[in-house]
Amino acid sequence: MKRVFMTTCLALVLTAMVFFSASATSFANQASSQGQSPLSAKTFKHACTQAKVGFASCFALQSTTGVAAPGAQTHGLTPNAQSPGGSAPYGPANLAAAYNLPTGASVSQTVAIVDAYDDPNAASDMNYYRSNFGLPACTSSNGCFRKVDQNGGTNYPTADSGWAGEISLDLDMVSAICNRCKILLVEAKSSSFSDLGAAVNTAVRLGATEVSNSYGGSQSSSDTSTCNSYFNHSGVAITASSGDGGQYVESPSDCPHVVAVGGTTLNSNGTETAWHTSSSEGAGGGCSSYITRPTWQSSSVTGCSRRAVSDVSAVADPATGVYVYDTYQASGWQQYGGTSASSPIIASVYALAGGVSGEAASIPWSKRSNGCLFTVGGKSYSYQAGLGSPNGTGCF
């Protein structure tokens, strides 16, 4: 029987205070139960500060020290869906292998990244990442990359180093998973839900077929209104991170028309478990306090009478994290994690699948019995990992 975690408002506040109180948080790297070697110890910090009510925080976790530049990876490999082919931090070929994804697929999709504030080095950092891994250039001159403000113009907001790290993570994950996709970066002028929501609407208006949101904040009684105003776009796959503070629900991942993306620990032998370092460190998830259960979601599976988070998942544990290249007040190559990584990964899998018509979040639920999801931790459903992680594109 699944266990539903009930917490009081005070407990949520105290948990958030503990989670964000230190500028750097240590995440233990443990050997897996399958006998792999333990990873070398690293510490990670939250890229963004704790958000006040009505605002969101990004969910990127970055290493407190740089990592060695990645070596060459083989592209065009046949993914084996068993092992990433190396140890963390993972690059594009590792992720393609782990999730049985095609490489170099030609698709006519535009993946939008919505974040707050400006990353002045966004385009150059992304293309350095792409060049290092042998991926095609994605620039404004070749029509692949576009960067706009929340209204669709070029009046970019104030730069912020924390959100710049988040932007780099997001752009690099789209590049890693769907390297032939067009990429649209929409920068909100602040981290308020109204500004971020306006940026989502702009992304859709400008033609995005997938929109990734790697941020969130506390649930509130206004969630239904916010969800309907900004996160309800039929025919567009809108993904949102479930959070990094352990098993409780963040918004906008609770929105009924959003694909709520949880997080996993991706071991070097290809096995995955729900990312759960401790009660306050790990992927978010649980039963929404305010959002009605969508018709496509089964309460007999989730144990929730309302909307359950998450739907699906991908790697998020920073200890088994990914390569990111960021130079805006940062040192270049770093190891990143958090459900900020899993949201753009899943958005890009939807793009590889050719986009959606109708309700994107319903697709994994309707197709889950077809073997197109990997079971995470031996469970057919869990709040932190949802129905599982991608096994190819068939569930998307």
From TrEMBL:
Alphabetically ordered keywords of this record: Signal
Signal peptide start and end residues: 1-24
GO molecular function: serine-type endopeptidase activity; tripeptidyl-peptidase activity
Superkingdom of origin organism: Bacteria
Presence of keyword Signal: yes
InterPro entries in UniProt: Peptidase_S8/S53_dom_sf (IPR036852), Sedolisin_dom (IPR030400), Tripeptidyl-peptidase_I (IPR050819)
Positions of the Peptidase S53 domain: 89-396
Descriptive protein name: Peptidase S8
Species of origin: Dictyobacter alpinus
